[in-house]
Amino acid sequence: MFGLALAAPPGPMNAVIAEESVVRGWTAGARAGLGAMSADALFFVLAALGLVAFVEQFPTVRAVMVGAGGVLMLYFAYGAAREIGTTFREAADTDDDSAGFTKAFVLALTNPYQILFWLTIGVGLLETGTVDVLAHTPYLGASLSNLLIVETGSPALILGFFGGIALWVTGFPAALVAAEQRVDSFAPAVAAVSAVVLGGFGAVFVWDAVRALAL
Predict the structure, then answer these.
(1) Where are the membrane-spanning stretches (predicted)?
(2) Where are the chain's structural domains?
(3) How far apart are CA 68 and CA 149, in angstroms?
(4) pLDDT reported for residue 77
(5) For 25-127, where are the alpha helices, taking DSSP H only?
(6) Is 161 exposed, middle or buried (0-12, 13-18, 19+ CB in 10 A)?
(7) 176: closest CA among 163, 164, 165, 189?
(8) Rounded to an integer, what distance in angstroms lies between the CA atom of residue 124 and that of residue 68?
(9) 172 vs 46, 167, 198, CA distance in Å?
(10) DSSP string, 110-167
(11) Predicted local distance difference test score (pLDDT) of residue 176
(12) Is there a contact between 133 and 1 (Cβ–Cβ < 8 Å)?
């Protein structure tokens, strides 16, 4: 449930997964999801080594990472807009599947939401204690607090956390592909929404970075 709570809400990462799924098929979508998951795994290792907490001491570094993420999102939004009107049956190219993994991995490394998560609750996963799982759901956390409390510091929690993410990044693309196969207009709609979501988040993150660096 923890992994699903983190992975499922709409946002820039799911926009990339959705675009890859409906344009190039389930394999590309799942690869993109695994790219994002790999970034979480890397953050987990860095948290275990204490490097994530170290980065928190340098606001300028965080601001640069956020700005880079915003620029990448704007670039990927442009790519998604170009693919409006294309279905994966028309444009499938297995040689491009790995590009989705790289795109999501790099974007996840500079995604402010993932950075913030690993600077706060992600570090806490390694320490004995408790965590309010749903309170850390992106965008909805405040309204879901105190509904699910779990103990931290256990291998079962870590395995379950990444298991939930894996379930989402493989199941979500499958659902999108199934829908696209039934509704011809579904793929262009997803590409359009992906472009809007990525562009919106990208603009916000670039602005936040500019303000942080200007202070």
Answers:
(1) 34-54, 61-81, 115-135, 156-179, 185-207
(2) 1-117+155-214
(3) 34
(4) 77
(5) 26-49, 51-55, 59-82, 88-91, 97-109, 112-119, 121-124
(6) buried
(7) 189
(8) 26
(9) 27, 8, 18
(10) T-HHHHHHHHTHHHHTTSSEEEESGGGSTTTHHHHTTS-EEEES-HHHHHHHHHHHHH
(11) 83
(12) yes
Residue 15 class from Cβ within 10 Å (0-12 exposed, 13-18 middle, 19+ buried)? buried
Q: What is the model's pLDDT at position 41? A: 92
- The whole-number pLDDT of residue 71 equals 81
Residue with tokens 């990444």: 162
172 closest CA partner among 82, 106, 104: 104
Residue numbers of the chain with a pLDDT score lower than 50: 88-94
Phi, psi dihedrals of residue 128, rounded to the nearest 5°: -70, 130
The per-residue DSSP string of 117-132 comes to HHHTHHHHTTSSEEEE
114's CB contacts (< 8 A; 6+ apart) are 13, 39, 40, 43, 108
The pLDDT, as a whole number, for residue 151 is: 75
Phi and psi, residue 151, nearest 5°:
-85, 140
Q: What is the pLDDT of residues 85-142, one digit of tens each?
A: 655 444 444 455 567 888 889 888 887 777 777 776 776 777 777 777 667 665 565 6
Please report the pLDDT score of residue 153 as a whole number. Answer: 77
